[in-house]
Structures are given as structure tokens and as C-alpha cells.
Automatic annotation (TrEMBL):
<keyword id="KW-0443">Lipid metabolism</keyword>
<dbReference type="InterPro" id="IPR001753">
    <property type="entry name" value="Enoyl-CoA_hydra/iso"/>
</dbReference>
<comment type="function">
    <text>Could possibly oxidize fatty acids using specific components.</text>
</comment>
<dbReference type="InterPro" id="IPR018376">
    <property type="entry name" value="Enoyl-CoA_hyd/isom_CS"/>
</dbReference>
<dbReference type="InterPro" id="IPR014748">
    <property type="entry name" value="Enoyl-CoA_hydra_C"/>
</dbReference>
<dbReference type="InterPro" id="IPR029045">
    <property type="entry name" value="ClpP/crotonase-like_dom_sf"/>
</dbReference>
<keyword id="KW-0276">Fatty acid metabolism</keyword>
<dbReference type="GO" id="GO:0018812">
    <property type="term" value="F:3-hydroxyacyl-CoA dehydratase activity"/>
</dbReference>
<keyword id="KW-0456">Lyase</keyword>
<dbReference type="GO" id="GO:0006635">
    <property type="term" value="P:fatty acid beta-oxidation"/>
</dbReference>
<dbReference type="Pfam" id="PF00378">
    <property type="entry name" value="ECH_1"/>
</dbReference>
<comment type="similarity">
    <text>Belongs to the enoyl-CoA hydratase/isomerase family.</text>
</comment>
<protein>
    <recommendedName>
        <fullName>enoyl-CoA hydratase</fullName>
        <ecNumber>4.2.1.17</ecNumber>
    </recommendedName>
</protein>
Length: 257
């Protein structure tokens, strides 16, 4: 498929999606949404892909939802289209998705990064929810996901003042998993994804589902869910292979079964 707003490639067992609207700092419009979702779904269906990375440019991961597209939108347009609901499909991708963020991740850009399973940030990354400066508020999950990542106080600060958080503060606050030099971002993200893709895909997908369940349920239900999924892993050939390989002091050969 030919894409207009993203670049898509596969490196080893990793699917790489690069947002590519440099003149608009990768602002997220409906074409970007359709193309990102199409690429994600293609990687999800590709048995040769074990993990996915979404990135942008060194200046901007994404500077937000496309303000020029929203400027003349009416309430009824937004309501009837259930505007932004399409991005929720990202959280239904079952393979791991890593956001590799350099530069601005603002508004919808920050929200897109937070929809991914974890964020690796370049040391020049800047995160923010500046929608309030435009007379609106976050609409792609920022008020909910940011609060879960960094707590109420910081989320309120960011959503109400519109201030940006740098990479160091984002790491300290738990928004990002690690910070790396900007020039090494893609290699670090691809290395993390390649490592994940080298493991048993069903085990990786079950682990992702279990961690995500912690956001949706009580601790006791979550612990029960984890145990039940863990028990089911003893039906995997890859469990036998992984544990046998450890005991036999060799590298496991996972077959994703
Ligand atoms: C409403 C909801 C729910 C979600 C949202 O995401 S709203 C958008 C939130 N994001 C923002 O408010 C950030 C807007 N952008 C900026 O503040 C600045 O562009 C910047 C601080 C990120 C970078 O400033 P800089 O001076 O380096 O670059 P600019 O000349 O301002 O931008 C270059 C080029 O990109 C266009 N641009 C930037 N962001 C967006 C955007 N979110 N939507 C559409 N277009 C955007 C900007 O207009 C300029 O293009 P033109 O020169 O052709 O106007």
C-alpha cells in the first residue's frame, strides 16, 4: 500500500512506522489516523513481525492533532464523526507497540505516545497537553492516560497550564521508560523491539494483556487474571523450549506456539 503521511518498513522482525508530515510537524489529521491504523493492522497480521515502533522526526514526534483541520469543525461534525474515537483502535493492537519520541509530543502527539505500550524518549523530547491554550481540552485520552502515568497533580498542571515537560522530568515522573541521546533514539527503540521480537510472541502478547489489565480492574481481579494467564502458558511449546534451553544452557528457539 502507498502511504501519503507515513513511512513504513520492516527491519528484522520489527515493524517501523515513521510519521512523515515534516512541514506540519507531523500534526495528526484523519489521513494520518487511517494510515497509521492500516500499517498497524498489517503488522498485526504479519507473522514475521513481533513488535512495532512508531516514531516521528528529530524535531517532532507529533505537534498534536491538526489544528487547521479542526479550526472550522462544528459540535455536530465532531459528535457525528465521534472525532478521535478511531485512535482507540491502537489500544486493540495485541503486539507490543513502542513510541520512540524526539522533539515535540504535544496534545494528540503526547496522547498517541501514551497509547503505545511504552515510550522511549530522546533527550530533546518535550511532552505537553497544550489544548487549553486553544480554548479546548485533551480529546485523545490525555486527561485519563496522563493522570494514570504521572498522577493527578502533574496531570492537572500540564492540562490546565499547557506547560511542556522535558525528557528528564518525563522520565522522573514515569511517563517514559528511558531517555537516550537524540542521535541514538531509533537504534535504541529498534534494539528494544528486536529483543521483544526474539521472545515467544504468545508469551509477549499475554504479558502485554496482563499489564494492560491492571489499568482496567481491581488488584485482586488483576492478580487472579495474571495467575490464570500464567497457568495457561504451560500449554505453550515455547514454555517447554524456554525452560529446557535454560537448563541445557543453550539459546531457546521459540516457535511462537
Ligand atoms: C484539540 C486536541 C484534543 C488535541 C490537539 O492536539 S490540539 C494541538 C495541540 N498542539 C499544539 O497546540 C501545538 C501547536 N504547535 C506549536 O505550538 C508550534 O508549532 C511548536 C511549538 C510545536 C513549534 O513551533 P515552531 O515555531 O518551531 O514551528 P511553527 O512555525 O509553529 O510550526 C511549523 C509548521 O507546523 C504547523 N503546525 C504545528 N503544529 C501544528 C498542529 N498541531 N496542527 C497543524 N499545524 C501545525 C504550523 O502551523 C507551521 O506550518 P505553517 O507555517 O504552514 O503554518
Amino acid at each position: 500500500m502507498a502511504y501519503e503521511t507515513i513511512l513504513v518498513e520492516t527491519r528484522a522482525r520489527v515493524g517501523l512506522i515513521t510519521l512523515n508530515r515534516p512541514k506540519a510537524l507531523n500534526a495528526l489529521n484523519t489521513t494520518v489516523l487511517a494510515e497509521v491504523m492500516a500499517a498497524l493492522e498489517a503488522f498485526e497480521a504479519d507473522a514475521g513481525v513481533g513488535a512495532i515502533v512508531i516514531t516521528g522526526s528529530e524535531k517532532a514526534f507529533a505537534a498534536g492533532a491538526d489544528i487547521k483541520q479542526m479550526q472550522s469543525m462544528s459540535y455536530v461534525d465532531a459528535f457525528m464523526a465521534d472525532f478521535f474515537a478511531g485512535w482507540e483502535a491502537l489500544s486493540r493492537i495485541r503486539k507490543p507497540v513502542i513510541a520512540a519520541v524526539a522533539g515535540y509530543a504535544l496534545g494528540g502527539g503526547c496522547e498517541l505516545a501514551m497509547m503505545c505500550d511504552f515510550i522511549i524518549a530522546a533527550d530533546n523530547a518535550k511532552f505537553g497537553q497544550p489544548e487549553i491554550t486553544l480554548g479546548v481540552m485533551p480529546g485523545m485520552g490525555g486527561s485519563q492516560r496522563l493522570t494514570r502515568f504521572v498522577g493527578k497533580s502533574k496531570a492537572m498542571d500540564m492540562c490546565l497550564t499547557g506547560r511542556m515537560m522535558d525528557a528528564e522530568e518525563a522520565e522522573r515522573s514515569g511517563l517514559v521508560s528511558r531517555v537516550v541521546p537524540a542521535g541514538e533514539l531509533i537504534e535504541e527503540a529498534l534494539a528494544a523491539a528486536t529483543k521483544i521480537a526474539s521472545f515467544s510472541l504468545p508469551a509477549v502478547m499475554m504479558a502485554k494483556e496482563a499489564v494492560n489489565r491492571s489499568y482496567e480492574t481491581t488488584l485482586s481481579e488483576g492478580l487472579r487474571f495474571e495467575r490464570r494467564v500464567f497457568h495457561s502458558m504451560f500449554a505453550l511449546d515455547d514454555q517447554t523450549e524456554g525452560m529446557s534451553a535454560f537448563v541445557e544452557k543453550r539459546t531457546p528457539n521459540f516457535r511462537n506456539r
